[in-house]
Structure formats: structure tokens, C-alpha cells
Amino acid sequence: MIKTTELKINAAKDPRKVRCDALVVAVGQGPDGPELVDGSLGGKALQALSRSLGVLGITGAADEVRRLPGIDEFHAEVIVLVGIGQISAAADPTEEKLRRAAGSAVRQLRGVGHVALALPAASVRAAAAVAEGAALGAYAYTEHRSAKDAGDVVAAVTVVTPAAGEKSLPAALERAAILGRAVNATRTLVNRPPSHLYPETFAAAAQDLSKNLPVKLTVLDEEKLANDGYGGLVGVGKGSSRPPRLVKVEYAPARAKVKLALVGKGITFDSGGLSLKPATGMTTMKCDMAGAAVVLNALLAIAELGLPLKVTAWLCLAENMPSGHAQRPSDVMTIFGGKTVEVLNTDAEGRLVMADGLAAASAEEPDALIDVATLTGAQMVALGSRVSAVMGDDGVRDAVKAAADRAGELFWPMPLPEELRPSLDSQVADLANMGEKFGGMLTAAIFLREFVGESNGRKIPWAHLDIAGPAFNEGAPYGYTPKEGTGVAVRTLVAYAEDVVARAG
Ligand code: BES
Ligand code: MN
Ligand code: ZN
Fold this sequence. Notes:
CATH class of the largest domain: Alpha Beta
Number of strands: 22
CATH architecture of the largest domain: 3-Layer(aba) Sandwich
Structural class: alpha/beta
Largest sheet: 8 strands, mixed
Bound molecules: ligand BES, manganese (II) ion, zinc ion
Helix content: 25-40%
Strand order of the largest sheet: 8-9-11-10-14-20-15-16
Shape: elongated
Strand content: 15-25%
Distance between the termini: 37 Å
CATH topology of the largest domain: Aminopeptidase
Number of domains: 2
CATH superfamily of the largest domain: Zn peptidases
């Protein structure tokens, strides 16, 4: 069961009428030093406070949170100043700055019950960004904590905005809550230890998250996978005492004109298999199912939003372990649909299970195909731990990048250089699972491309998202991003689906 502590979100116009435990006000780094950003709050006391920021040692830098005593004119126990980073007189803070400031404040105010966020959010979109940041900041993973107060995240927020009362605000706040739920459920699946989350229990969790939503779930167990020819999942899963699963989740509303397929890498633990990882390379490998968690929760959010497009998500679930039953380097497997692959390195397992997923998804001839995977260490070499890569056909790739920009997630387009393709040639099979090491992220993507099928004689438009680094935050929390599972890519996929719907008219 995934318990998501539901943040209550509402909106109000007048901060003086909000009764709360903490009133959050933004401080920006202006050209002349720190300044309170929302002038509309007014009041002498706040003006005095604005003048004292320098001597209080408050800079306005992102993630700075400072609690001060309450001020008479507000019904708040404390005034909280949150840094929003650089501001300019010329432009309002970006939606992402608002999301991060709201998220940072709510995250750092754990233990406080009701928080009012009086950030500079004049429009419905800006107010929704504040709500979304708050929902993302109100997260803690506590399933295995014995302390009773371990889960005391902020329970309710009031977004203080002049847009309160506007007709489109309730739906925008509801969307923020849905996104928050989807991202937080993704985080919880990623954070859940591999002792508890393995293919069978992942499938059960997917079932549990889907209930009450208009989606259909089909679970293919190890027997079915073997009978139907899913050689990638069977091969990778062979070394583990916990057998693989392929979970297919379908959302098919009546009015849909477009059909989107999503495929996610769901390696519930990646030890490397017989090509065993060094101990240090294994410590974060519970995160190797993030892609599957992302596509599942993106689909569920799309269903909850009621977007009029068909979406099918394929969760490729296996545990990559070494044992006497494990696949060996040199083994050859047959992927769903008939292509053969020689396994040169059992640690390049993601592309094997994804090959099955991509081939199965392609057989249904979707209009577009997007896969999400913590696929390569090379992703982190290329782009670091906060920027995800998007590769594939120009159209889908650019549409994903545009959606990510709107969602406030960092993605960067990467190429698929043709000269890397021959490095995947095998002596004995159609393909090898390992090729050129330099540009290894691109080589992996080119491997996946081989399994994208055709529809009406044309290659299905496809994009591949490598989220190896960004899926799991090994550093300190920042903005609305906690330690460990981040849930990155959920909001991008939902934004992409919204854009597809908008374009389809
Ligand atoms: N799950 C890893 C990739 C990864 C590394 C994800 C670090 C997140 C953080 C993947 O299965 C893997 O082991 N890839 C190998 C491929 C290589 C053997 C061709 C890699 O990147 O080293
Ligand atoms: Mn691996
Ligand atoms: Zn892996």
C-alpha cells in the first residue's frame, strides 16, 4: 500500500484573514541586496522587517528558510522568510522559482500544521505553481520508521494570491494536488527497499494505486512471459528468487483521438548480475525501477485528470541478481517479436527488459512511444545528477523537451550518432547488449531504437528518457526535491500528454 499524506490546499486573497501556524513570505536577491518580494502584503511591520534583512543575515538565496516571531496584523504564530533567489524589477519570478520556494519552505517546516504561502503569485498559473511546489515539498518517506512523529509533514497550505476567487483556480489547484500525489507515490516506490519491493509486490502496488481510477491492469507472470516469448525479462529475471513481471496499464477514455505508449525500466534491484557491480556501485540500485514507477504514476495522473487521450504503460519488472540460475555473459536471448541479443555484460540489463517492453508496446501501433529508464551511468557523466537526457526522433524529443520546460524539470536533448550503431553488432546474434563505451548513453539509446516498431509502414515516433542521475538524489534536499527518490519525469510526461491533447484539438 502506498500511503500518500494528502496535503490540503486552498486559496485566499487577504493574508490578514488567514489563521495559520506559519505565514511564509519570500525574500529575493535584488540589485541592492535582499528584499521582501511581495509588496502587496503591505503593513508597517513588514516594511521594517524588509529594511532589517541585511542585519538579520538573511540573503534571499534559494533554500534559505528563517522563522521569526509573528506580527500583530497577521494571525500567524510565526513569520517565515523563504529565499527565492535572484529577482529583477523587469519580470515576475518564474513558475519554477515559485515551486521551489514553496517546496523548500513546506519541506523545512516539518512539524508545522497549517502554512500560508504569501509568495509573489498574481496569476492562476503562478498560484498553481506555489500549490504544486507545496505538494511536492510535503513529503517524507516513513514506512520503516518506528517513531510516531516521523511523518509529520505540513498538513495544510493556503495559497495567498490575488487570483483567489478566479473561476479557473480550483481546477488548477486540483491539478497541482494530482501531480503532487503522482510524484510522491513515485518517490515512495523508489524509496521502498528491495527487501519489500520486488516484481510481484511492485505489481501489487500498481494494482493498489490504480483502484478507483478508470484504468485496466494486466499482470503477466513468469510463466506467461516465458510462453509469450519475453526473453529479455525472463533472461534478466532468471538469477533472482523473485521472478519477473510485465504489468500493462491501460487508460482508454471514449473521446480519445491519440494513443500514447509509455515503457518503464523496473529493475527492483540491480546488482549487475554475474557481471557484478562493485559494492559502491550497488548502494543506490534500488532506484533502478524509477522508470516503471514514473510511467505508472504519470498514467494514473493523466487518468485522474481525465485527459482525452489513450495511454498504455508497460512496466518491465525484474530483479538483476547473480546465482547459479543467472544468465551468463555470452548467453543469447530472444526478445519479444523475435530479435536475438547476445548478452556481453549482464549489468547492461535495463536495455534487455526495455527491448521486450518497446517491442510489445509497438505491436499495438501507438501514435507515439516514450520510454523512461535509469539506463546508464554514462548519463551522469554527460549531464550530471540533475539534468535528464531525452533522445529519439526529432519531433517527440523536442515535444518532450518543451513539456519538461513547462513542467519545470531539467531535460536536455542528446543525439543518436549513426556511427555508434555498428559497435552493437554481435558475432552470434542480431545484436549485442553492449557497444561503444564513449557516449555510452547514446549507444544504449541506439540499442533501444532497434526495438521500436512500425505503424502503417512508418517507424513509430519515439523518445527515450535517461533519468539515471536525476531519479535519485544522493545529495542534500533542495527546493521541493527530497533526498533519494525524486519522482522526476512524471510532471514532464503529464505536460507532454496535455500538449498532445491541445495539439490534437
Ligand atoms: N542501472 C544501471 C545504470 C545506472 C547507473 C543508473 C548509476 C543509476 C545510477 C545500468 O543497468 C547499468 O548498470 N548500466 C551499465 C551499462 C554498461 C554495462 C554497458 C553502466 O552504465 O555502467
Ligand atoms: Mn545494470
Ligand atoms: Zn540497471
